[in-house]
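ingest -> fold -> write
write: protein_1
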Amino acid sequence: DIDWDRWLGPAPWQPYNPGRCDGNYGTSGNSWRSYYDYSGGSLTDWGAHHFGGAIFAADLRELQPSKVTYHPAAADGKTPAYVSLTYPNRVELCHNRPASLRPQEGPSLDHRGSVVLHGDGKAKAAKTVPLYRDGERSIYGDFLACVKSRQRPFRDIERAVNTMTAPHMIGIAYRLERSLVWDRASQQFRGDTEANRLLDRARREPWVL
């Protein structure tokens, strides 16, 4: 049995639907990950992993994007829409950018590390993203060690917020189909009320903050 009211918690009331309480990784209506009431979809779900590694490789963990640019799909339908993030140090991080638009030379990143390419496609330098702090075999071990040492955890909450800001901004740009400017100090988009409404949601009684 399931207490449907408690399962929904602060989310908007909906009639019972088994697809809204299944924990699989589908995004076609058969998992809670499919609904904006509970999730940002696979973009924010997997974004914590894939964007996290790319952000670490590009030395962006202490930063948040300053703007997100929406690139609409080509009129001929051959090039899909994609989104790019620009950081204060002018580093650009892209989601879903078509291969034909990717640079042929310079640094290339993914969630496991970075590689610098020559124009002929041959690698000349590479950097692997460490998963944990030296001497530790898991994020849990690192956290427990930091409880004792009072050091900053390898993946602490502030860096996690910086990382997750990226996929959330990308998701909002896709939903609104427009570019946005981010103000880190206020944690708001500048001059865009509609975008700012998507940063949070109303909570159903009695699950309110």
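write: protein_2
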Amino acid sequence: MRHVWCDRSHEWRAGSYTWTQVKSVQNLIERCLNQYMTQAEVIATLQVQADVDPALTCLVWSKLEEANPDFFLSYDVRLKLKDQVVAFNYLVEQQTRLLQKLTLALPQQSGGGLMD
């Protein structure tokens, strides 16, 4: 599957990279995949933290996708699940805050009974 962050214009440069560079970027990408990063996050992270040309990251990513299509299909599902968990946790946090505000806004009753 082709992601929007990489296009075919980078592939012509494939001959300008050494095998060592390609293997190094592959290892870095695999480490990022273990952190459940999106393709865009991987590209940005490798560019900023390891000074990797985004074209090289795209090239290696696309070759990994071609060689491991089943993995990337399941990886995309896991990324979607991760996004859903993050969204769910955010909503739970918001609900907790609202309930705390509501509890603080309710009048306090002495004695704990309704008929005091």
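write: annotation protein_2
The longest helix spans residues 69-105.
The mean pLDDT is 88.
pipeline exit 0
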